[in-house]
Structure formats: C-alpha cells, structure tokens
Amino acid sequence: MGVMVTRAESAALTRRALLDAAAELLDLGGPEAVTLREVGARAGMTRGAPYRHFADKDSLLTAVATEGWDRISDQVRALRTDPALSASERLCGALHALIGVGRGQPHLYQLLFRRRGDRPGQRGEGLDRVRRLCAPADDTAAAVRATERFQDEFLAVVAALVGAQNARHYGALLLTSAHGIAGMELSGHLATDVWRTSADELVDTVVRMVANVGETA
Amino acid sequence: MGVMVTRAESAALTRRALLDAAAELLDLGGPEAVTLREVGARAGMTRGAPYRHFADKDSLLTAVATEGWDRISDQVRALRTDPALSASERLCGALHALIGVGRGQPHLYQLLFRRRGDRPGQRGEGLDRVRRLCAPADDTAAAVRATERFQDEFLAVVAALVGAQNARHYGALLLTSAHGIAGMELSGHLATDVWRTSADELVDTVVRMVANVGETA
DNA sequence: GTCATTCAGGTGACAACGTCATCTGAAAAC
DNA sequence: GTTTTCAGATGACGTTGTCACCTGAATGAC
Fold it and tell me: Per-residue pLDDT for B134 more than 80?
C-alpha cells in the first residue's frame, strides 16, 4: 500500500472521507443524523476535525449537495449526448433521473432543493481567528455553480424538443412539475386515496402536454 | 376580566397559547427556532410545560401544520362556494392560495409538505410512565385528516372544471405542479438567469393547458 | 363538607450536539 | 537546521430535547 506522504494528498483524502461519511449519514437519517462527531468517527478522526475542511456543519452539507448536483448533471449530460435517444426520450430520462434521486436518496433530494441563504445564525469568526480558508461563502458559491450547470444541461435537453424560443418557459414548467411530483411522492402526499395516479403517469402527461404545445406552436 | 376557573378551559387556553407561540417562532426562524423553552416562555410558562399538551416537539409542529391545512382548506372552500367566480377562477384562486402560503410563511409551507412518518428516534415512553393522553399518533392522525380535507376540497374545485372523470389525474397534476412551482420559488431555484419566467406565469400556463385538455376531451 | 384523586405546571438533571480556544506533532518553506 | 504552517486531538461551554420528580389546585366520590 502506498504510504501517504504529502500533506495535500492527505487533506484531499480526509476531505473525501468526510464527504462520504456525511453523505452516508444523510441517506440514513437525514440532516439531523449528520453529526459532526459521527462524521469524524466514520472518517477515522475525532469530532473537531471536520472544521479543518469545512467552515461548519452547514458547509459540509452544502458540499454534499454540490456533489449531488454534479452527479445529476453528469447523468443529464450523458442522456443529452446519447445518439440512440430521441429528444422526448432524453427529456423523460432527465426528469426520471431527478425523480429517481427523490426515491433513492430522499434526504439528499431535499438537500438539493434546500432554501438558499438559510444559513442559521453564524456565531462570529472563530477557530484561532484565522480560518479564512474554507469560508462558508466558497461552499455556497460552488453549490450555486453546480446547480447552474444542471440547469444549463436541462435547458439544452428541453430546447432540443420545443425549440430555443420556448425552452426557458417550458423548461421551468417541466422542472417545477417534476420537482413537485417528486416532492409530493417523497412526502407521501401523492399516494392517497384521492389521487389515484402515480408519479410516472403524471410525468408522462406533463411531457406529452408540453410536447404537443411545442409541435403546434 | 373573567377569572379562569375550570381546568378544561385553562388547558385549552394554554394549548392555544403554545400553538400560537410555536407558529410565530416557526415563521420567524423555521423549525430550528421553535424551541420548547422559548415556546413555553412566550406562552407564559416554563420549558417542560408543553409536554402536558404535546407528546414532544414533533407533535407540536405537527399540530401547527394541522391548523395550517385547516386554514387553507377553509380558503379553498370559500373559493369553491363563491358564486361570483368561474370554475377556472376558483382553480386559480386555490393554487394561488397555496403558493401564497409558500411566499408569506415559507417555513410553515415546508412543514405542510413535510415527509410523513419522519418522526425521529423516539426514546421510549416517559413522563411519569403515564402520558397516554396526547400520544404522537393522535397528532399525526389529525394532520392526515386535515390534509385529506384539503385534498377533497381541491378535488371538488378541479372536478368542476375538467369533470369528475379526469378530476383525480389532473387534480394531482395541478397540485404537484403548483407545489413544485412554490417549492422552487421558495428555495430560490426559480429566480435564476436560466428560467426567465415567474411562478404566476407558470401557474397560468399549467391551468390553461389543463383547461384545454378538459375542453377537448 | 371532607377527602382522595387527577393533572397542569415547575424544577433539577442528563445526554447529545455545534462550536470554540488551545495544544501538539509533523510536514513544508526558507 | 530553523522557523512556519497546519491537520488533527482535546477540553470546555452554551443550547436543546427530554425525562423523573415534586407541588398545588381543581375535580369527583361519598
């Protein structure tokens, strides 16, 4: 086994371990279960160690969300550049990719669509009064970049179906609808005796409606 | 001022005060800000008092959500029975009522669509081993009833526009869409340079699409 | 009217958590 | 070789949810 020497490599490795542990705990029990102590323990360290890599717990979760967005963006990109798929198939695939996250990793999904700027009361500058590195702003900026990348990818998929003119409006419509479907399925508000339908049916209907408009208009 | 005598009246009054305090704190700073100590203080009591009226913090929040659903249900009912409104106006009104909650009371809105059965690790039976009253199950059952009432009201509004046959499917479609629009507006994911549209525009588009289908079909 | 019971509320305590200041040892820079 | 940097450990503090225990007043039985 290669002995780890350089400090940069070690830091990158521990940061990765911290992110993995946080993501795993998030999947298991939501943000409440992401305890800095448990994260540190799973990464083979003690409680205060994460503070060397993340400003606070919120920054850690934000970094997890950033990687989640990156992963979805990659999925959408793969769909968009798959020559074996039609435009509508690519769109359906992108929407189902999003909903799939809601099903498989509901806590991560909620984290992805968390309210921005919800950073709870910061208690002033601390940690030897020096920690200018890994400031909270950096993590949020990276998260915003990641979501923008997803939005661009998704917009391109929509534009291929309804044209560049209507892409923005109908892209927002499709994304918000899929988000609402995923959210209500996730929260259990969709599986009621009242609505006797499924998330997949709803997605199909929305896509069909938008596709019809895209053709006629 | 009338002196409070009977114990039942006193209990009902303090329960009301607790709910009001919790709702106010929720609006101010989200569920994290709803501290049992602060709730008790605002209700003129000490920290442990709420446990005589609610099983735990989660039950208190669930009760707040129940009242939120009740209020929205009343709004929709008022719209539904307003003779001065057309069917589509009633639908738009109901959707905007929901989105209005997302704008005015975002934390309450998120609480309304919170995942069911997310009750975090209950630590066993406590409080003198007697507290069979105000069990957590009661609050959740009441919350479910409240959401069902909303669903029924909303379904009736939709049925008046697209007919009873398609009401369930398109009702779910409209509700999920509105929920997604509200959620993404609330989280800030809608106000991006990518989607140059607004929540109101999206709602109008969705309603128009569904109305068209309702007419043609 | 008397007395036992119920029960809303107060109080002390505990564990868990986020976070900070401080310390330490090794890598890195010079 | 010396100094600086910095990842990580450790002790500590304040806050929070929750519990067991206690108290006093309203309630119901007789």
Answer: no
